[in-house]
Specification:
With 152 residues, the protein is α+β, with helices and mostly antiparallel strands. 18% of the residues lie in helices and 26% in strands. The protein is built from 2 helices and 10 strands, in the order αβββαβββββββ. Strands 4, 6, 7 and 8 form a 4-stranded antiparallel β-sheet that branches. Strands 2-1-5 form a 3-stranded mixed β-sheet, with no helix packed on it. The protein has a 3-stranded antiparallel β-sheet with strand order 3-10-9, with no helix packed on it. The longest helix has 23 residues.
Length: 152
């Protein structure tokens, strides 16, 4: 009986790890879209949440890891990212993270979500956290410098 219970716990743990990994790593190419927001037209990721750029990223290399990446998860992809109407395909790209995963870039900027954002809600525009300024990005590839309303 004890042996069966140990195997059941191990099996359950394996399922939990597999589900967590599946949620963290996309199974297909990420698709960006352009939507209207309180700050004008901006880019949104495949989850329906707005995407941000990080001021500490001076190139396509991400500088957001550890605690930063927990608060600001990178937008990951498997294969070349795709763009919907209004997304400039020539601005889409990818960068490799330290763990080998591929992060979506737009106009050379690695893209991130903010973990507390809700679908369609922009909660941390123009926030200075983790050593840099976080900004949403316009369809033309330029960071949106509009002052945000912190909704924390």
């Amino acid at each position: 009986m004890r042996k069966q219970m140990v195997f059941a716990v191990i099996g359950l743990a394996a399922v939990v790890v597999a589900v967590g990994a599946a949620q963290a790593t996309p199974s297909v190419a990420a698709r960006l879209s352009v939507r209207s927001s309180e700050y004008g037209k901006t880019l949104f990721g495949p989850t329906g949440k707005v995407v941000y750029v990080f001021g500490a990223d001076r190139s396509s290399v991400s500088h957001c890891y550890g605690v930063c990446a927990k608060a600001w998860p990178p937008l990951l992809t498997r294969g070349a990212p795709l763009g919907g109407a209004g997304v400039e395909a020539k601005l889409l790209g990818m960068t490799k993270r330290k763990d080998g995963t591929l992060q979506v870039t737009y106009n050379g900027h690695p893209l991130y979500y903010y973990s507390a954002d809700k679908v369609g809600k922009i909660m941390c525009q123009h926030a200075n956290m983790h050593g840099g300024l976080w900004l949403i990005i316009k369809p033309n590839g330029q960071p949106n410098m509009a002052k945000g309303k912190m909704h924390m």
